[in-house]
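Hey everyone, long-time lurker, first post.

I ran two proteins through the pipeline my lab uses and got sequence/structure pairs for each. Pasting them in order. The first:
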Amino acid sequence: MNEMLMKHAAAWLDAGEPVAMATIVRIFGSSNQPLASRMIMTRDNRFVGAVSGGCVETDVYEAGQAVMDEGRPLMLHYKKVENPVVEIGLNCDGKIDVLVERLDGDLYTLLTEPGCHTNVTLCYPNQPLTPGPLHAQVAPDSPVSALPPEVMHDALVALDQDLPVTVSYPDGRVALFEPVLPPPTLLIFGAEQVAVPLVRFAKLLGFRTVVSDARPAFATRERHPEADLVLHAWPEEVIAQVGVDRRTYVVSLNHEPRFEDAVLHALVGREMRYLGAIGKPQRRAERESRAEVAGFDLGQLPFVHTPIGLDIGGKSPEEIALSIMAEIIAVRNGRSGGMWHSGQQHI
């Protein structure tokens, strides 16, 4: 849930103003905005957020005014149009279903409650005037609710996958599942210069950031003021304190083999979402050689991304940090990270 949008919504609700909310509940093909993107609006041409690249927001705003006036939700459908000057629609080849409804205090509370659960929006997309939205939360320990068992099951699957998803059901309803989980963790070993912009980018993207280093001169709050946690400790101690799980993204910025090897040994048997290590291509062969001499099985670890990051040709700390975060986001979204246009796939 976008915190900035909800802050505006809270301010308008606290002021006693009517508020409408538009949500992308289903996408066919491509879309300028991802699933579950929202637009929050009130009177006097005030709105925040978007459900397209600017193509349909004016129409959505007008629908929001009608919803605030009449109190009834609406389902809007948009597709690509040939002449955007005279038609309202998208500039891409996809289609989107947008639910517009009143946002009151109860729905606001449900959507913004922290924890470990899935927010469910169950509605009829093929009934534009009567979409009948039902909102609920499903957690691993949820009791039996008004939701059908199959919806409860799919909500827990979505929570496990940690990505918004839409599922269609035989009765014509669709459910938008939005997992609500604590922020993923970016665990950085090596408080090098690259760690500073890496933390900055990661926090912009919603990550909890931990910077650690065994060298006391590097692991200081003064050097890394934006990190959520700065630890002066060896990797084994860091992992014991912070923990590592499948929502943890681990980055080793250590150039010295003794520090990188300590990280790898400390991670044995741990589940994580991503493991990357800085260095040139030959670093992988050197790592394998050291492991063989030490009798250490690298197969106990997930794939180590080396060289770390996407190949954008960056040399400065900021460019290197950007390439690292780009690769992490690609991995998180199950993508390869190549360029969009044909013939330029490098990953």
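...and the second, right after it:
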Amino acid sequence: MAVTKLSISLDTAALERAKRAANAEGISLSSWLSRAAEEAADVAESRAALAEYLAAYGDPDRDAMATARTELAELGTGQPEPVDQISARAAALARLRGQVPPQRQAE
């Protein structure tokens, strides 16, 4: 990854908050600011894409949105997942990637 050095100015309070956040995550301020810039750019691009979609197709139909929300809720989409399922999926993916040996089931 190419890195470009630059000089920026930040509000003192914003700088202190960024330093605390980076320190809490155990990463450099530069890494934290780079990630924050990426996240902010993602949000800006998402907003632009939404505005483009709405300009082309208009606002979504309320009844269709309600139906879609109901169908998604019935499928369990967007609902909290039990920890044991999260752990089982993570272990299965790790085994598929060859990262850990498969565990034997208790006999």
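Reply from user beta_strand_b:
Welcome! Quick read of the second one: The radius of gyration is 22 Å. Residues 25 and 70 are 38 Å apart (CA to CA).
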